[in-house]
Design brief:
about 190 residues; mainly alpha; Tetracycline Repressor, domain 2; elongated
Length: about 190
């Protein structure tokens, strides 16, 4: 009976973990094999080379942060603002946020990754536009609110400021209310 091979998905997941913790330069076949407790020979049964693994990692990241997220928010339902909030929680989850940040860093040096990131971000921005467009008919305000909501989701982890008397989560929840609701604390316009 032959030895069981390490599944392809395990190589991709190990690559994504390495990317999240150390950037694209940390995605090395030998290091991944060691982290999986296998030899690197099994790698070549699935991937021609490191670039093929990197492409598979980006495919997985894109699917998980767009397609899977969109499927789940449609399945769970709710109003459009609730869907946008859920999309944000799923997209920037504890697992996906570090990968997303690493992809953003990688995209600064690789035009192909930058194109992929742009495509993913455009899907995310369109969801925000749709949500905000349900209560706002000014295209400039829709775009501004969408941009601010997206920037808050991405940028909040880079901010080291304190929020006297409030937690970061409370401030982000209030920011979400300001951006994704008709009029904060008031009736619909």
């Amino acid at each position: 009976m032959g030895a069981l091979r390490t599944p392809r998905e395990k190589w991709v997941e190990a690559g994504l973990e390495a990317l999240a913790s150390g950037g694209v330069d940390a995605v090395r076949i030998e290091a991944l094999a060691k982290s999986l407790g296998v030899t690197k020979g099994g790698f070549y049964g699935y991937f021609a080379d490191r670039d093929a693994l990197l492409d598979a990692m980006l495919d997985t990241w894109e699917r998980e942060t767009t397609g899977d997220v969109l499927e789940r928010i449609e399945r769970e339902g709710g109003d459009v603002a609730d869907k946008a909030r859920l999309a944000g929680r799923l997209t920037f989850s504890e697992r996906l946020r570090p990968i997303d940040l690493a992809v953003r860093d990688w995209a600064r040096r690789d035009p192909d990754v930058a194109d992929r990131l742009r495509r993913v971000d455009n899907v995310r921005m369109e969801l925000l536009r749709e949500a905000i467009g349900t209560f706002c008919d000014d295209p400039d305000e829709i775009e501004a609110r969408s941009l601010l909501a997206f920037c808050a989701a991405i940028g909040s982890q880079f901010l080291a400021a304190d929020h006297p008397g409030r937690t970061r989560a409370e401030v982000l929840a209030r920011a979400s209310d300001l951006l994704l609701n008709r009029v904060p604390g008031g009736p619909a316009r």
